Amino acid sequence: MRLMFDEVGSNKLKSLLLLSVFIFLIGVLGAVFGVIYGSAYLGLGVAVAVSTVYSLIGFYSGDRLVLGISGAKPVTRQEHPYLYHTLEGLAIAAGIPVPNAYVIEDSALNAFATGRDPRHASIAVTTGLLKVMNRQELEGVVAHEMSHIKNYDVRFMMLTVVLVGIVTLLSDMLLRTFLWGGKGRKREGNQATVALILVGLALAVLTPLIGELIKLAISRRREFLADANAAVLTRYPPGLANALGKIARDPDPLVDTANKATAHLFISTPFRKSKGFFASLFSTHPPISERMKRLEEM
Fold first, then answer.
1. Do the Cβ atoms of 185 and 37 come closer than 8 Å?
2. Is residue 194 exposed (0-12), middle (13-18) or buried (19+ Cβ within 10 Å)?
């Protein structure tokens, strides 16, 4: 039997280490940008200011934006009593407030959670998932999303997406500076200038890719963690394992309103499945077969 709580602690530590790489990348980009214009401290200050503003916007408005983009509609207890009872029971088991219930009109089998904390959280499920899942399977899916809320995964992932955006923005600004020049750029020391330009260009080109890979790695680790916690909440790992099996066999997994910005929030990738090394490298989710295997070992 897998030592589940050891895995939970390991995933949390690794995720924090990965997030710290983002902070390092933002600092390096800000410092390089500042050196070009005469002051590394100025560059760091700008990077911190931009990061703070973007983070606050994502923190307070990210959940409403995600629900709107996804076409999720709030539902009442009378409309979906089965879903409401499941949410209430698992919220009591998890020791958190009952999340708001949303439904997405789509035949694909999927669900996601959003919100900055358990008191401002929502869980959205597709109509396709409600039609296909039995009670134990729906409990497994909802428990997975409830675990994301309880562990503050959604806040963590929203922050990660914001940081990727900041890294991309700073990289783009740096690249444009090299392409179009800047009045304040230091030009003394020809060799030093050339070396700085080469380093800056490498950072500008590679940093967004590195940032995206880190975001995807964090997302995949969080899925394993949520699966483990869902098994604890329901006391029945086969429920979620069977639900994942049905999701894997879904002939049309595409969620029409999903996009690259929201894909990592869903319980399974909301796009049509593709194979190959690069497809797996840039996937927001670990293979469902691996997730099912871990659940069956618990």
1. yes
2. exposed
Owner of token pair 């959205």: 124
Q: Total structural domains in the chain?
A: 1
Q: What pTM does this model have? A: 0.79
Q: Which residue's entry shows tokens 């996804």?
A: 70
Q: Quote the domain boundaries for residue 201.
A: 4-296
pLDDT of residue 189: 47
Task: Name the active-site residue from 145, 212, 296, 297.
Answer: 145
User: Which helix or strand (DSSP H or E) is residue 125 part of?
Assistant: strand 121-126
Render pLDDT for 77-130 as a digit per residue (tens, 0 to 9).
Answer: 899 999 999 999 999 999 999 999 999 999 999 999 998 889 999 999 999 999
User: Average pLDDT for residues 72-76, to the nearest whole number?
Assistant: 93
Taking a C-beta distance cutoff of 8 angstroms, is the pair 238, 42 a contact?
Answer: no
125 φ/ψ angles, rounded to the nearest 5 degrees: -125, 155
Note if 223 is an active site residue.
no
Name residues whose C-beta falls within 8 Å of residue 180's C-beta, 6 or more positions apart in sequence: none
What pLDDT does residue 183 have?
47
